Amino acid sequence: MKIRIKFKKYGVMKFIGHLDIMRYFQKAMRRADIDIAYSEGFSPHQIMSFAAPLGVGLTSDGEYLDIEVKSSKSSKESIVNLNNTMVDGIEILEYKRLPDTAKKSMSIVAAADYKVFYKENYESPYSVTEWQEKLKEFFTDRPEVLITKKTKKSEKVMDLKQLVYDFKILEEENRPVFYLNVCTGSTDNVKPELVLEAFYEYLNLSYDAFAFQIHRLDVYAKTEDGYVTLGSLGEDIE
Amino acid sequence: MSTKLALSDEILLTIDKPARYIGNELNMVKKDPKDVEIRFAMCFPDVYEIGMSHLGMQILYDMFNKRDDIYCERVFSPWPDLHKIMKEQKIPLFALESQEPLKKFDFIGITIQYEMCYTNILQILDLAQIPLFAKDRTKEDPIIIGGGPCTYNPEPLADFFDLFYIGEGETQYDKLFALYKEAKKKKWTREEFLRKAAQIPGIYVPSLYEVTYKEDGTILEMKPKYEDVPIKVEKQVVMDLTDAPYPEKPIVPFIKATQDRVVLEIQRGCIRGCRFCQAGMIYRPNREKNIEVLKKHAYEMLKNTGHEEISLSSLSSSDYSELEELVSFLIDNFKEKGVNISLPSLRIDAFSLDVMGKVQDIRKSSLTFAPEAGSQRLRDVINKGLTEEVILNGAGMAFEGGWQKVKLYFMLGLPTETTEDMRAIAELANKIAVRYYEIPKEQRNGKCQITISTSFFVPKPFTPFQWARMYDKDNYLGRAKTVNDAVKEQLNRKSIKYNWHEADVTVLEGIFARGDRRIGQALVKAYEKGCIFDAWSEFFDNSKWLETFEELGIDTDFYTMRERDREEVFPWDFIDAGVTKEFLLRQWDIAHEETVTPNCRMKCAGCGAMRYKGGVCYEDKN
């Protein structure tokens, strides 16, 4: 039976990288007595995969991992059992059964929502209204926003207009907060910091990665009904 | 609830592995520091992944935190990347749990497991902004206490510690804490507290002793400054190991520690009596833990950690009397749940091969033998009971069972070693290979792989070889070359690989292992020159050490190149480690006669440990 688990990652856990989070969950499954299935072979490993790795330094309200189990308690009980053995900074939100035909989350991830805000000890160079005007100029009103993404091997020119589905700036506690919905996945992937960096560059400002806290809100798959959260593809087990 | 971290996001996102410094791991103990009377920082002076793999620290962490009046936290050596930042920005070293500076604590307990961490101890004190020298500390500073195997000769570190705890931590800490609380209540001075602490068995207060030297540089006398300070400090031993505290909920690191598994201590001590081995002497008498308690611990610890592996811990697992039952229990109960079972320090025989065949992939795993010396003559000198016949039989059985990789461990520079003994290492490896190729071609799996590793022998206090001399770097490398040349002459040389250990670090380890108080100044000087993480070859800088000794006029040959006189007073003679000096001297003599001593179960050798009234000394010998 396939299960999709949604969890939050916050606080000091943002310093724990993706590989260590995987190890953390492997151990957590044993502690919570989840009847997880193992691969065949001499050194069997748990059947587990993550939707979209979250970088070190980022927090999230919507992380997903898929597991295969041999049997399962109800969603409610499983969530309680898992949460009883979580550290501060990881909280299980959902535990849902997927249809047997469901594809791995990793292969269907299409978009993600992010909220980006200034950390406490950093000031914004503009007021919210000013930011909103700049955004119109940089993004909303332009037919294309070309940027160059550098990887270890090559440089690639991308059009942010095709890959950033939504970009707005709101005011929260008198400070600007950036909301982005970006293309995510193994083929085209846009990180929010890339967008912000391009925005800063456009404004002739020097970008300081430490100034921002990037927070993922949720991850989406594209279906016939449009974009839906990965969690909504499963059903609660009663 | 979230703790304010001691390091900023800017720092944590710049350095390697920030998880080393944030705490918050599963099973970490959380208390409000305001609710306790004593704050204890438990320190392993090496990087987090090494320190978190140490069982003794987890035992004491658990034991201290079971008390409501103590909050025990952890601290490890900041890696050089963070070290630099902390020095530049003057960030005080902090404990992982509360993230608060160490200098606020009542105690800093430092476990001293190997000599090459000595400069890291100074690093800890320096970054914590605590005076390096005990004499410069005031009532504002924590009490610095050292423990662990290196405290069996604490003298090179005497200037930096207020106290040393000699022996197993389970026995005297309650007394020490009671005294500390009394001291706080009655507002004793630091000196008054230390003076009283010296009267607790096992507690050594270096500042209360005076050492005088002879003209030749050896010790004339070491004596207490006051009458109420004991002449001898007695090592502490837990006689009831079964009911001794054991952490049921060990901390589970986020990043992979060296020991990323449940560790089940099955016994303490060793019955074998290898003459080079310090652990085999200082942990006497051998004491086993009851098997039913071990089964319970195994179950609880796996449940509470979620680890996918369990490892048995002891100096010689095969000597645990109920090993077969324990191993079967672990396999029957946990193998199906995907738990690996790791069995280090097993003697290779039919039983162990059967078990290993069940718990590991034979094609990938290797057999390990530690003959320590190549020839039977030298194995008799060191009292390593392993014979060539046993090795070849074990290897033969293993090869027939499908194994093809063998690892062999030896030491070079052992007392009385000759060229023949060195060459015998290569010859033994060749004989093992010959045994492999005796198996018909169609039944074997290609070539066998035999890996020889040699380290250089360092004489340690409280061993029969504490009188032995060492050699210089070139001499050690010459010995390795002799082995290497001999390997190249072997018929099966293509199946044999040879690795040897660094030689300069061996010499330094030898200086510290049997050093005296005069070595302390060299540690400070070398630390000031930038020596830290000396145990890590990428950081070890021998030239800085050579410079240091040169500048201070310390003749290191005095510590390494001399065979000690039978009457010489050693810096560690003030410790009563259970084994008597007479016994060690007797062993030193019969080593030269190439005579083996039977193990403790076969025949008591009269080492002195019987006075603890338990363990193997009192087993029914039939």
What do these coordinates show?
The complex is a heterodimer of chains A (238) and B (622). Chain A is 23% helix and 36% strand. By secondary structure, chain A is an alpha+beta fold. Chain A has 2 domains: 103 residues, 2-Layer Sandwich (Alpha-Beta Plaits), CATH 3.30.70; 85 residues, no CATH class. Chain A starts with a strand and ends with a strand. In chain B, strands 2-1-3-4-5-6 form a 6-stranded mixed beta sheet. A 4-stranded parallel beta sheet of chain B has the order 15-16-17-18, with helices on one face.
Layout of strands and helices, then pairs:
The complex is a heterodimer of chains A (238) and B (622).
Chain A: E1 2-9, H1 18-31, E2 48-50, E3 59-68, H2 75-83, E4 90-98, H3 105-108, E5 109-118, H4 128-140, E6 146-150, E7 155-159, H5 160-163, E8 164-172, E9 175-183, H6 192-202, E10 212-223, E11 226-229, E12 235-236
Parallel strand pairs in A: 3-10
Antiparallel strand pairs in A: 1-3, 1-4, 2-3, 4-12, 5-9, 5-10, 6-7, 8-9, 10-11
Chain B: H1 9-12, E1 38-44, H2 48-51, H3 55-65, E2 70-76, H4 80-89, E3 107-111, H5 118-127, E4 143-147, E5 163-165, H6 173-185, H7 190-197, E6 203-204, E7 209-213, E8 219-224, E9 233-234, E10 262-265, E11 267-268, H8 278-282, E12 287-288, H9 291-305, E13 309-313, H10 323-334, E14 340-342, H11 350-359, E15 367-372, H12 376-382, H13 388-400, E16 405-412, H14 419-437, E17 449-456, H15 473-489, E18 496-500, H16 504-513, H17 520-528, H18 542-552, H19 557-560, E19 575-576, H20 581-592
Parallel strand pairs in B: 1-2, 1-3, 3-4, 4-5, 9-19, 10-13, 13-14, 15-16, 16-17, 17-18
Antiparallel strand pairs in B: 5-6, 7-8, 11-12
